[in-house]
Every structure is written in structure tokens, then in C-alpha cells.
């Protein structure tokens, strides 16, 4: 059912100057303020309805490629809701030893999981992690007297890689993929050089393929004096099977909201901790947490720190949830998560008839909608009660349906997903045009939204 | 649920199902699916023990209990206001909590509408026409404002002016953004806790792409010359970026009315509470900059049946489409915190929000007066109006007072050798009597 | 969407004797046990879906007469979730002073609200409160050498009144209503006598009418040697305006899940504290809480206690929620709740065209569906997104629609309700027969359910 | 939300709306709508102060903090097992929490299905064909069993046999039910913690309408003669009512297999945790008694479109229809706790539930052995198998040990002058080492 905007239910205006005992002179206060004015029961109904119009992981399968929409255990929320966790960032360190112990432990665990020597928890998201890693690479090269202003990125990489490189002040060199969907070694040889600051790589890549030549890639980049950056978006494919550090990566970020089950929250908050090899540890953001000789914890400024990428200590509550998840699973649980994630992707792929041009894939695969528009197929999948995969990307596959079921789906829900894939991709043109039909909103006009931007309820003040 | 240490408790596969799936795929076991050279195979031994759910909860609780139980009178950019129970209850509904960025708007109308409402509230509070869905935090929002300035300013230039009183951590974040964008930061002096307008007039020139000011400042003082700052910035074709928060915005001068081009701040001040500095970056700006705004925007549109519907819009600004030419690298933002902020604002309503803001002035004034009566303490140090917090001059060393207060159960900030800072909100005002009594003992 | 049963998703059996290290000999253990075997993500989806197929107060208006479906603030849940509240009933009293203080305070507040001298919190529901009150009346009469075995109950009373009287070992004397819907004074005079143990009354009664002659009624019953029992189901009508104790009632129960906003939980738990005048205080259930001279709290056995009506101390967590609600509202909030509850009922009645034979009513009214079947009208109201009123009861009104909107509805939702009333009662026969159409399930066959009882999933083991 | 002390914060009416509604009704103010004689008008002054939401929360927390923080080793009919976080999360969803008894099943299919699943689990656990949606608690379920016995027994009779080891509080509740139903209670002696079968044989006669036994007993002992008890009851046309709980039922003899006609117990043992004795009454019985069962029953049916649907059924047994001839006066029951129980059982699954039950035997045995090694303590007192708990003989006065343990942070039960009782589950087993150490100090 259509839910009105808060202001359409009841609105009221106040004027700070109006009250007898106004605490400030008129010239320091605003004239008026007009906001929704609802009682709590009305708000409860409003947001309950809005929640029911939102598809989450608890609604059904959510196989978005490279997003790792796994189940978010309420255990994590309980741990994060502990009132003892609600501390102020200016508290003296001796009064927040609990928080610092959690952070130091998480740093240690992430280091073990990635094969990295040191980890910062400060970056508040994956892209912030990329940016942090690149700031570290930049500082490292500057320190070593190298003027390296290029970052090499495969054409199949996540868009954030490019944007983060730009933000950190690098030029981007795009690396075409080889025919097998992996890094083109010749192109890489050609691309690296004295200007190469780093190569950014996802492994397995966005097609789900493991870069088998990763050791050779590392050698090429390292020989050229560059660093190897690992984009952790796909780490859920490899837990316990291979570690970026062992592959030759120098810097990596972790997406705890992907691999370690902290909830996506409709777009965030996440957290993007960054791990580095020991040579790069002096460059980590400040402050950094470490254990002292007497088992206490302290904050310190790494010797050659790149400074800060978050105003405080990053997304603490999210980090706390990741800590709880890793502790709950332990070695066997983490390894099993990857085993089942990879099995699920392979099983699902086996159940659908669409072409999957590249393989062998791991936790995700990219199918092609063929002569159908991938977006149409996705929209029609909504009618079967599942969330569709990521569409039209990566571009290596035409009409791509980039699919990552994660380990939390059962054979039953994978079969349900497969049925939705089949039904949607077999539908006739009229049905596809008309999809979705069973959703809260029917197909939404994106062109209108962009041509005539209405970005707040003030846009509805006049006649609509 | 007897699987602690045996596998993921969140993978539903029975042995038989795993077997039949492996058969369908045509392999003997899952290991066969990993296309990883032996040379870099890892044995899975991280050395992390698994725990049962209850043991995990217990261990976390025990560890966090190492945090001392203090009543906090700390502020300086991270504020605590009381969160209504209904906000946590509604925000934790799993459809909200576990959903993704709204790339399939037809099944995300609820979250999109909530974000649209969030944007609308921030538009109302700032007076600017556009507010995005959130940046990572106040500091990154400030950094994004600086890079926006370089994109929208008509002539070249490379200086960002920042008051000397800005938190050094925020400035450090800005410096990294500046470095990537070939900008430099210059400092504007303050006079008794607010921007020294004369000094600003002397410093500002055509090199300046953005002037930043805060209201209230990190010391709780309320700026009185915002309009002048705005005029000066405009006269030099520089953006005027104002730092604030949604509570202060309800009472203090409307940013648009003093010429602000961008407003940044921590909107998590409402809805989230103390979270060791976690919050979410408020980012609002003028309609002129629509195509240059960083971050996600929700817009209204219509669906195929002609009904109003919401969708992420103007995505061609964003990294997943424009890549290195994007307006920002931001992808995962703080949407869920923005949802909580919107819920908290809606719960307060205009009356409640204004009253909360007015109390931030009244309570700080009252507490300063009471502190000022204590021998050895003088407050407020700055001869300004204050919001939430103020600086106290101390005869004794400030560190010593801070440490003794910690023993009494209070956390306060030592600004320097002989200055403390105290912050009072609805979340700690119930403890002000006890704080004053303790101060009387230790000052 | 249809949600399968848990066992239909996955089931597994275990046999206690099978394990090597079985802790008990075979002859002390069961043979086997077969239960659903699902992982947490599957359960989360199952129950999320089931919740979305359930209409609660946060879904929309819920105007069930005599049920007082008011908004249940999450504040109350937060208070009850305090880990300090999770105590064992065998804890020594000196270690649970907090719990006892809450109980003593709630006893005191309920006493003030009802005009009663002492209150027990032990009865776990309204009907248990009735039963407790009648046990007290019985013990009181026995103590005074009276052999009184009749309880008089108006024909319009809640069904529990009759059943509770029977359970307590009384004979029920049914009192016909007068033409104005209130107690027939002549009939009452005729009914009372030496056998009268008590008269049970709801005031306002189930038609929403205040028994204006309550003082005369009390005199008649008291003169005959009987006691007056107040059924608190409709107390939300009178908060701050009139108190049962002041009207002459000797015993009453409170429904905290009605008047004091503790959630109904799909049928319970509630709590049914019982208040009594001082003469009856010695008969309260044991143990009872009281404050000691030095501001501590203790449990004691009232001198002439009727014993126990709950194995421990009643529904403690529910009582704690009621305590929080009363504290939050205070005098003005409680009085305002009744003012708005009564205003809402009167406003809603004004907006609908159906006949409402009795008045003036307070927090609820009983409309007649006229020549329509009240159940049909109710089912069709579901199609308009609201919950219908209670149907076909009280029988004084033909095709009754017993309607109590409570104070939490706004003018807007009352108008929405009124529109649903109007549309449903004006619908043609075919539409009514076919209703509801927009609900999870269509009209359900009650006859089939009763004739062929299938009360567990074991009923589906064979061919369905 | 600025209305503390001004009115109900949960009534949404603005002054203008109130005015227009009053106008529509045709009165000047709300007071005019109260048809209450002046002689009994009350002035609204209860003397209860209102509090803001945060002050309410704070005050409640402060008051409850007067409860000492003890690790509980108490049992005796109220047990704590660890509640998975997901149970609280799902059960607190407002659709479940705020819904009503399912009198409109078309919009209550979710809750009805959950209750149907609850019933099914209890049917499986007891082996009986019918389980209702819940009674108030174990004691009231026992009372209802006794009144059921009077309804279904073919010949007259008025005696209910109860072991001497039943909690006196439960017996007190039963006594009230018995009084109303003209029944009397007689006691069956026990021998070393379980029913003395020979004594029972001597006592039982045609006057007996019901024989009650518990497994495990209030002392944690496991009955070994249940089948004999069942046979004795059957031979005298008496119902055999067995008291248990859902954890014990997963491991111990299936009630149906030993001839139980009714099973009662606290099903809240799973799903709710320690709640000062709050729980919910398990009530299961044989199909023969279908029309005599007290409490609500959910049944499967079909809807107008032919699909499976759930509904409350056989309501003609209930008070709202049958009034004084109803099978019980129960109306509001403990449905939401039953929902939590079902969720907890489902979370555990058959493996997890059985393991939990087996640990109740193993942990009690192990703790008893460790306690027995301590000078001055002897455990277990009863030469039986135990479930969760056992009795300890003490050389020192038991009260003194109990009180000293409370000072050390542990709550244990003193049975009498020289006997303690200890209960161990997954909720406190992590503290057994500390308990044993403390016992070593204080015993």
C-alpha cells in the first residue's frame, strides 16, 4: 500500500524567536523550522510499513555479485548493543581498555586471515580502504624517492578502484582483460614501468575467476618497483584456502560488511580495514592500537603515518560486530563459509541454462542474459519473490547477470533462485516489458527522476 | 546449532544436501572447486577458536566490561543525545538492517522513502536545496566539500581556509583530501573562540576556493559573524562551507540565510549516540551544484502505473558508472545511520527538536555559571554564547582534575594545561549535580 | 506468499540411545525425536515472513471492543530487557530488592488508580484476576460464617466472568439488562439475597455505558451481604474520572495489557492484578510484597490468604512493563489517555452511519450492521487495510460491531476506519460473501477446522 | 515529544484536531463525554509523577540495579537456558508482539502458523495427539489437568494424588483448582527422590481421578517407574498426568509411551529464560479428550481459494462462547512466550535439543562429583540419575553456606537445615569452576 510522506501526514512549524524565554538573541537564531509532527504510534506504523516495503536478506535470496549479501546474525547486534560499547572517542585510553582490546584482537585476526603483518581499522568502508591503501603506497614511494603517479587497474575492476586512485591523486592505467577473463600478462608487462605505483587487483576477479598467475603478476609488478593492492570485495571466496599476503599482495582492504556478515544497512555503514606487509606498517593511519608489554592497550602514531581517513576511529560498532562474527565462526567456520559459498555458486550455475562464458569460477559467476536485456530479466525475477543478481556488469559479458548466492542459501533456495532465473529469462517480451508486477512499485522511470530531480519533499510544495 | 567449531552455523547445508550438490556439480568435495595453485594454498589454520553463540556474547561482554563506567561530559564533535527506544526498535527491523543499496528500487521503496525523508529534513534544516544520503563522517564530508569546491569554482585556486579551532583530526582528514586534489590548507585565526573576521579579511584572496567555519565551534561557542564570512567568501568566488549538526541547525542561524554553499557535520548526533566517533556525514549544498554533488541521492519519480515512487538518481556522478571521473569514491555510505537520524528527528518533531536545541544553550549556560562559582574554576572562558559545551579555566593542572574526576566516575576533556571542556546534553544533565559536587572536591 | 511449515522445509530425527556416550540407560530415554532441522538464516526468513502475515497495532487501527488495543511503546520492552530484571524466583529477598521495589510501587500505583487499599500482582491474566477475586470473596464469606454460593453477572458481561465464577465453585445467576442497556434495578433487587456472594460488573459496561446507578447498585448488593466485583477490562474509559473503589466496589482486577499498554503478544502474556478494600486485604494470595520500616522490601503471607493462583509471582516481565508505562504517563498522561479514548470513540461513532442503539457511550460503542451479517462486514473491512471491531457481541445489539478505537488513533486513522465501516457495510452481497480478498488468506472454513481437527503437522503425514 | 506531564505521549491529537473532533461530536470538551455522577467523580490526582522517556528508563534501571548481580544455580521448576539472539530479535517484531488473539485469522496467518508449529513440536515431544497454545504456567496447567480429569472420567471420584516432592507453590495452586472443583489432594510418598511405587499401590483406589508425577522431579531426579505409575492409574480409571519440560522431554521417556494422559510443565524453559517465575504452561493430552481440552487450539483448514490456512478452532469449549460451562476460564494466555519457545526449539533442532538435554545429565553428574570431593559436602544425596540439578548434604548449616555464597556472587537453594540444591545448565556452566572454588572456601 502507498505510504504517504511524513509531512503529508502532519507538519508543524516553530520559530525560535517566538518563545518568551528564548535563550539566544534573535540575530543568532533561524526564522522558522517546519518538520513532520507525528506521535510515536504514527511513526511506528510509518516505519513498520516502510520496512515491509524493503527487501532484505531475511526476505529471501539476495545474490548480488561482489556484494556478498550473507545473513547478518542478530548475535552481532546484541554484542554491539552492549552499553559498555557506547564510549566517547575522547575518553582517555586507560578508561576504554575494553574497546581497545577488541580492536587489537580484530587487527590480529584480520592479519591472520589476510596474511598481513599489520592492520588498521580506521577506513569506514571498502572504498575508504582502497583510498587508504593508495595513500600508503603513495607515501611509501615518496619516502623512497620514487615519483610514481600511475595505478594500474584491470577493466573488470570495481568502479571504486578507479575513483579511489583518482582521489589519492594518481593517474589510472586501465588494463584490458585477456580472453580467458583474467589479467592479460602481456598487457601487464607493457603497462608497468617507472611510473607504476601499484596494481589493484580483485582475486578472484569480478568474473569469479582466480588469477592463477598471481605469483607471476606479483613478480612483474614488484620487479617494476610497484606495489600490489588487493581489493577484498571477493575475499569470501578464499577464506582458509589462500591469503592475499601469501599471493604477494602488499596492501589489501577487507569489507567486513561482505566477508564478516555485518549488515549492509541499506547502503552502510560498513568498514574497510586495511592490511599491509611489515614494510608498509609505519605508514598506517593514526592513531593505531597496540598491546603494551603489560597486556594493556594503547594508541600511538605510526612513525611515517599517512595521517587520518576518518575523523575518529572508523565505524567502531561495525568493527565490533565483525569481531563477534569471526569469534563465533573460528577457523573451521570461516573455511566452511567459503567452501559453501563456492559450492553454492557452482551448484546454482549448474541449475540454470544461461550461458556462463568464463570459469572455473568460485563464489560468483557471470551469466549472460543472451538476447534479453539483463535489466528486464532482473526486474522479472522480482516477480518470483527473489532478489535478482547485479546486472550489466562486468562488461566483459554481454547482458551480464553477476551472481553470488553466498553460503547462507540452501539447496532449496538455490533451486528457487534457479527457477526464477529460468522463468524470467524464458518470458516473452511483453512480460519482460511489464515486469515487475508483484512489487510495491512497478518499473520506475529513471529518466524522469534524473531529468526532473525532486530530491526532497519541498519539491511537492507546489501543485504536483 | 551444535556445530560450534565444525563449520559455519549460518550455512544451512546438511551432509546429504552437500553431497547431492557436489554430485550435481560433478566434484568429490568442495576443495576441488578452488582453482588455487598449490604453491599459495593455505591450510586454513588461522589459530582463531570458534565459540558457541552464548560464549561469544559472554566473552564480548567481559571484554567490553574493561571499559570504565563513566558519565561522559565530552563533546567536541561527537555528541550524545538520548535515543528513543522506538528508534532502535524500528531501525533494527531486519528488512532495513539487512538490505542493500537500493539498486532495485521496486523492492526498496521503504528504505528509499526513508532516505528521501532524511534528505528532506536536512534540506529544511540547512535551507539548501540538496542533501545527500550520507558521507562517512563529518571529516570526510568536509574533505568532499573541498574537492567539490575545486570542481565548481570558475577560476583556478588551491587554498582552503580553515579556522585554527577545528579539531586536528578533522583537519588531518581534510589534508589527505587536499593532497589528492592538489589543494593546500591555510589557517584562519580565531578571537575568543570564534572566527577573527578582520584576520579573515586580511587572508582571503582569489587563491581561496573554500572558506570553512563551524557553528557551534569545537569549543561550543556560537559564531556571530557568519553572514560576513559568507559575504567575504562570495566576494572571492570561494565556497562557504559551514560545519554544524542537526540539533544546532534547529536553533542557530539557517546556513542558507548566511550564504553557506555547503553544510557538513555529523548527522549521527541524532539517532546514534556515543559510538567511539562513528556517526555519519551530513552533506547539503546548493541546487547549482547538482551534477557535482558527491554521494547518493534519492529522487522522486513515477512507476509504470503512474504512482509516485523513489529511486537513486543522478548516478552518473558516481564511481560505479563514472569511475575515475566520479564526484567521489564513496560507495558504501552510512545509510542506516541516516535512517536512524530521520527517525529521531521525526520523533522529536519541530517542537521537541527546538526544545532540545534550546536546552543545549540553557544547560551549558547554567552549568558554566555553577562551575564558575567553584573556587579555582572560571567559566566560560570565552565571552560568547555557547551550545552544549564550554571551556573552563582551572587553577590546578587540568590533567590532574580530569584524572581525579575519572576516579569519581566522570569523563571530561583537558584542553591544555589549565583548561577543561565540559559538554552537557539531555543524556548527562541528570548527572550535573554530581559533577558539580565532584568538581568542588577536586578543583 | 504461502509459507511452508518448518518441517516441510527440513526435518531430522535423532535417537537418544544411538550415541556412544549416552548419559542415561536406554530404558530411561525415548526412542526417537523428529523435529525441524533448519539453520538460523532459514529460521529468520520463516519468522520474518510469518510476522509480515500478522496484523498488529503497528499495522494500523485495531478497534476491538473491550480489548483496548493501544500502542505498545518499545520503551516498555527496553525496560523489561534489562538483564537485572532476569532473576530467579527462589532468590533470597535481600538479593532482589529491585524487583520487589518495582512490585511494591506498582501495587501502590494500581491502588491509587483504582481507589483500592491493597493490590496483588500475582494473577497472570484478567480471567485469573476474576478467579482470584472470587476466591477472596469466597474465603471472606466463609470466614464470616456465610454460606453464599451465587455470583450475579449481567447478561452483557465478558464470558470469562461466568467461567471464573464456575471455576471458583459458584453458581451463576444471570442478570438481564434493562432497556437502556444498563443493570435492571428491579431484576437486581430480585436476584440478590442470602446466597449472593458477589455481583460482577464492568463499568462502563460492554456497551460503553456508565452504570449511573452504581451507588444504588452497591447499596443493594452490600445490604444483601454481597460483595461488588469490578471487571477492569474497560478501565481505560475512566482513568482519572472515576475509581471503582469510590463507586463502592470491593474487589477489582486490572488488565495491564489493556489499560497499561503492555503488548497483547498474539494472545498473551498479560497480567491481571487484583485490588481490594482493606477488609479483604488479609485474603490476598501469598506471598505479598510490602515495604519494611527501613525502606527495604519483603515477602509475607497475608493472614487469611487464599493461597496461590500462579506457581510463582505472576507475569513479572509484564508487570515491569506496566510499571514503566504508568511512570511515563503519570497523572496527566493517564487522564489524557482516557479523555482521548472517549473522544475517539465518540468521534468515530459520529462519522459512521450505522445505528448505535445505546448511549451515551465512553471508550467504546456497539453499532449494528443492520440487515448485514456483522462477520461479513468485518471480513470486508479487512480489505480496506484496517482491523475490524469485535463482532456479534454483546448480543443486546443485533449484528453487533463492538468498537473501541483507543486514544492512540488520530483523526486521520479514525476517518480511515470510518470509511472502511461505510464501504464494508454498503457493499453488495456478492462482495461481502467474497470478502476478504486482499488478505494473506481468504475467508477460512471454520466448519472444516472443527469437523476435521488437524492440530499438528503430524496430521499432514499421510496424503493430504 | 515535549509533552511529559502534559498528556499522553501516545495520543497523537494536536489541539486543533481535538477541537475539530469535539466540534464534530458537539461538545465543548472531553469532560462532557463522561457520563459519571458528580458524587463519584475523581479529580485525577493519583499523585504519580510523569517522567520523560529517558528518565523512565534511567529510573527503572536504577531501581532494578538493587537486584544483586549473582550467578544463579537455582532451578526447582524455573530454569534458565541460553536464549539465541535471533529468538529475541524475531519475537520482538511488532507484528507478533502487538497483535491480538487470532479472532480474524485471515490477517493473523503468521502467528497462527507459529502456534500451530508450537503445538506440533509439543505433540512430538510428548507423544500425545493434542497440545494447546499455552496455559498461564505449569501450576495452572496442573490445575486444569485436574479439572479435565473430573470431566472425562467415567465414574465419580474426588482425589488427586500428588507426590510429596512437588513444589509447595504448585500444590497450592492445584489446591485452589481442587476446591472449586470439589476435589481433594492426597499425597504419595517418595523414596530417595522418586515416587514410592509400593506406597502408591497402597493408596490408589477408585476415588482417585488423577495421579500426578514429575520427570525430572523438583529435586532433579529421574523417575524410573513411570510405566508402572501409568499402569496403576489406568487400572483405576484415573488420568496419569506427567510434569516435565521441553528439554527433558527430548531425552527422557516419551510420556505417551508410559501411559501419560496429560503432560504439563513450563514450556518457557526454552525461549524465555529467568523471569522471576514467569513462563508458560505446557498442556498436552490425548485425542480422546479433544472436546474437553482447556485453552486455545489452532487447527489447519482451507480458505475460500482452497489453500491451507490456520484458525483457532473448537472455540465452543471456550469461555467467550460457553461461559460458565467452558472447559476453563482462560482467555489471555501466554501465546507470545509459546512463540519464543517454538523459535528456540526450531533453532536448536533435534540434534541441538538432544545435546542440550544430554548435557543436563552430564553436567549435573560432573558437578555433583566435584562437589562430593569437597570436605563437608556430599552429593548427590539421592541415588538416582539426575537432570540439571541435585541435592547436596552439608555438614555446616545450609543457610549459612547459601548466604556466604551470595556474598561470593552465587545464588543457590537451601532445601533444609543441612541440604543445598544446585542446578547447572548451559546458562551457568561457565561458572561452575568458580562455584566449586567458592564452595571449597565456604563449606
TrEMBL record, chains B, D:
Enzyme Commission (EC) number: 1.4.4.2
Domain of life of the organism encoding this protein: Archaea
Enzyme category, top tier: oxidoreductase
Keyword set, alphabetical order: Oxidoreductase
Coiled coil: none
All copies of domain Glycine cleavage system P-protein N-terminal, residue ranges: 10-429
One GO biological process term: nucleoside metabolic process
Catalytic reactions on record: N(6)-[(R)-lipoyl]-L-lysyl-[glycine-cleavage complex H protein] + glycine + H(+) = N(6)-[(R)-S(8)-aminomethyldihydrolipoyl]-L-lysyl-[glycine-cleavage complex H protein] + CO2
InterPro entries the record matches: GcvPA, GDC-P_N, GDC_P, PyrdxlP-dep_Trfase, PyrdxlP-dep_Trfase_major, PyrdxlP-dep_Trfase_small
Listed GO MF terms: glycine dehydrogenase (decarboxylating) activity
Protein name: glycine dehydrogenase (aminomethyl-transferring)
Organism encoding this protein: Halapricum salinum
Amino acid at each position: 500500500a502507498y505510504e504517504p510522506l511524513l509531512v503529508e501526514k502532519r507538519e508543524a512549524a516553530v520559530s525560535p524567536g517566538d518563545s518568551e524565554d528564548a535563550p539566544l538573541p534573535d540575530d543568532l537564531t533561524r526564522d522558522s523550522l517546519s518538520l513532520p509532527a507525528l506521535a510515536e504510534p504514527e511513526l511506528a506504523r510509518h516505519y513498520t510499513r516502510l520496512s515491509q516495503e524493503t527487501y532484505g536478506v531475511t526476505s529471501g535470496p539476495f545474490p548480488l555479485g561482489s556484494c556478498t549479501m550473507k545473513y547478518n546474525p542478530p548475535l552481532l547486534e546484541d554484542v554491539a548493543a552492549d552499553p559498555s560499547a557506547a564510549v566517547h572517542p575522547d575518553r582517555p585510553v586507560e578508561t576504554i581498555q575494553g574497546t581497545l582490546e577488541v580492536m587489537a584482537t580484530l587487527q590480529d585476526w584480520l592479519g591472520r586471515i589476510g596474511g598481513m603483518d599489520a592492520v588498521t581499522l580506521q577506513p569506514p568502508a571498502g572504498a575508504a580502504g582502497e583510498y587508504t591503501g593508495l595513500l600508503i603506497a603513495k607515501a611509501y614511494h615518496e619516502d623512497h624517492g620514487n615519483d610514481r603517479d600511475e595505478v594500474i587497474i584491470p577493466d573488470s575492476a570495481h568502479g571504486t578502484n578507479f575513483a579511489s586512485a583518482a582521489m589519492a591523486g594518481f593517474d589510472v592505467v586501465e588494463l584490458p582483460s585477456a580472453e580467458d577473463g583474467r589479467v592479460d600478462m602481456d598487457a601487464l608487462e607493457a603497462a608497468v614501468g617507472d611510473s607504476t605505483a601499484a596494481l589493484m587487483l580483485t582475486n578472484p576477479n569480478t568474473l569469479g575467476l582466480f588469477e592463477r598467475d598471481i605469483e607471476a603478476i606479483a613478480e612483474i609488478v614488484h620487479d617494476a618497483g610497484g606495489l600490489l593492492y588487493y581489493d577484498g570485495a571477493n575475499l569470501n571466496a578464499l577464506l582458509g584456502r589462500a591469503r592475499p599476503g601469501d599471493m604477494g599482495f602488499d596492501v589489501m582492504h577487507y569489507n567486513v560488511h561482505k566477508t564478516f556478515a555485518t549488515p549492509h544497512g541499506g547502503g552502510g555503514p560498513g568498514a574497510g580495514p586495511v592490511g599491509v606487509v611489515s614494510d608498509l606498517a609505519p605508514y598506517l593511519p593514526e592513531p593505531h592500537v597496540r598491546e603494551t608489554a603489560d597486556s594493556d592497550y594503547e594508541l600511538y602514531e605510526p612513525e611515517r603515518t599517512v595521517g587520518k581517513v576518518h575523523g575518529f576511529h572508523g565505524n567502531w560498532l561495525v568493527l565490533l560486530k565483525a569481531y563477534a562474527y569471526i569469534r563465533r565462526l573460528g577457523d573451521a567456520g570461516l573455511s566452511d563459509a567459503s567452501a559453501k559459498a563456492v559450492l553454492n555458486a557452482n551448484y546454482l550455475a549448474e541449475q540454470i541454462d544461461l550461458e556462463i562464458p568464463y570459469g572455473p569460477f568460485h563464489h560468483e559467476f557471470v551469466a549472460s542474459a543472451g538476447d534479453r536485456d539483463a535489466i528486464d530479466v532482473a526486474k522479472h525475477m522480482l516477480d518470483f519473490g527473489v532478489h535478482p543478481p547485479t546486472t550489466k556488469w562486468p562488461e566483459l559479458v554481454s547482458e551480464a547477470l553477476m551472481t553470488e548466492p553466498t553460503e547462507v542459501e540452501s539447496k532449496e533456495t538455490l533451486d528457487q533462485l534457479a527457477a526464477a532465473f529460468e522463468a524470467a529469462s524464458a518470458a516473452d517480451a511483453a512480460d519482460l516489458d511489464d515486469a515487475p508486477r508483484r512489487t510495491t512499485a512497478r518499473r520506475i522511470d529513471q529518466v524522469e527522476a534524473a531529468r526532473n530531480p525532486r530530491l526532497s519533499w519541498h519539491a511537492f510544495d507546489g501543485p504536483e | 546449532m551444535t556445530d560450534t567449531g565444525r563449520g559455519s552455523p549460518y550455512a544451512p547445508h546438511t551432509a546429504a544436501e552437500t553431497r547431492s550438490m557436489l554430485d550435481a556439480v560433478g566434484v568429490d568435495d568442495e576443495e576441488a572447486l578452488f582453482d588455487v595453485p598449490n604453491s599459495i594454498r593455505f591450510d586454513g589454520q588461522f589459530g582463531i577458536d570458534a565459540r558457541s553463540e552464548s560464549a561469544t556474547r559472554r566473552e564480548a561482554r567481559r571484554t567490553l566490561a574493561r571499559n570504565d563506567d563513566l558519565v561522559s561530559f565530552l563533546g567536541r564533535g561527537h555528541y550524545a543525545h538520548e535515543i528513543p527506544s522506538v528508534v532502535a526498535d524500528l531501525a533494527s527491523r531486519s528488512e532495513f538492517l539487512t538490505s542493500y543499496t537500493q539498486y532495485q528500487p521496486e523492492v526498496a521503496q521503504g528504505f528509499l522513502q526513508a532516505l528521501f525523508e532524511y534528505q528532506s529534513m536536512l534540506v529544511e534544516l540547512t535551507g539548501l536545496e540538496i542533501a545527500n544520503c550520507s558521507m562517512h563522517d563529518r571529516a570526510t564530508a568536509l574533505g568532499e566539500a573541498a574537492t567539490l569546491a575545486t570542481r565548481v569554482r570558475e577560476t583556478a585556486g588551491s587554498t582552503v581556509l580553515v579556522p585554527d579551532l577545528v579539531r586536528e583530526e578533522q583537519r588531518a582528514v581534510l589534508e589527505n583530501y587536499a593532497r589528492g586534489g592538489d589543494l593546500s590548507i591555510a589557517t584562519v585565526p580565531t578571537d575568543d573562540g570564534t572566527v577573527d573576521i578582520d584576520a579573515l579579511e586580511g587572508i582571503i584572496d582569489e587563491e581561496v576556493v573554500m572558506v570553512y567555519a563551524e557553528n557551534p565551534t569545537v569549543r561550543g561557542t556560537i559564531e556571530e559573524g557568519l553572514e560576513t564570512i559568507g559575504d567575504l567568501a562570495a566576494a572571492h568566488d570561494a565556497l562557504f562551507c559551514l560545519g554544524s549538526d542537526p540539533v544546532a541547525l534547529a536553533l542557530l542561524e539557517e546556513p542558507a540565510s548566511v550564504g553557506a554553499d555547503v553544510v557538513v557535520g555529523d548527522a549521527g548526533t541524532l539517532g546514534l549516540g556515543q559510538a567511539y566517533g562513528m556517526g555519519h556525514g551530513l552533506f547539503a549544498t546548493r541546487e547549482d551544484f547538482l551534477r557535482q554533488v558527491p554521494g547518493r541521492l534519492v529522487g522522486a519519480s513515477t512507476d509504470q502505473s503512474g504512482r509516485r515512487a523513489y529511486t537513486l538518481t543522478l548516478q552518473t556522478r558516481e564511481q560505479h558508472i563514472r569511475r575515475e571521473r566520479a564526484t567521489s569514491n564513496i560507495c558504501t555510505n552510512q545509510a542506516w545511520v541516516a535512517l536512524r537520524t530521520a527517525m529521531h528527528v521525526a520523533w522529536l518533531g519541530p517542537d521537541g527538536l527546538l526544545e532540545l536545541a534550546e536546552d543545549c544553550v540553557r544547560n551549558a549556560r547554567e552549568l558554566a555559571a555553577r562551575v564558575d562559582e567553584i573556587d579555582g574554576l572560571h567559566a566560560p572562558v570565552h565571552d560568547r554564547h555557547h551550545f552544549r559545551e564550554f571551556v573552563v579555566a582551572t587553577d590546578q593542572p587540568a590533567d590532574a582534575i580530569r584524572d581525579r574526576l575519572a576516579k569519581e566516575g566522570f569523563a571530561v576533556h583537558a584542553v591544555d594545561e589549565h583548561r577543561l571542556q565540559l559538554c552537557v546534553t539531555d543524556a548527562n544533565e541528570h548527572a550535573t549535580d554530581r559533577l558539580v559536587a565532584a568538581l568542588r572536591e577536586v578543583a
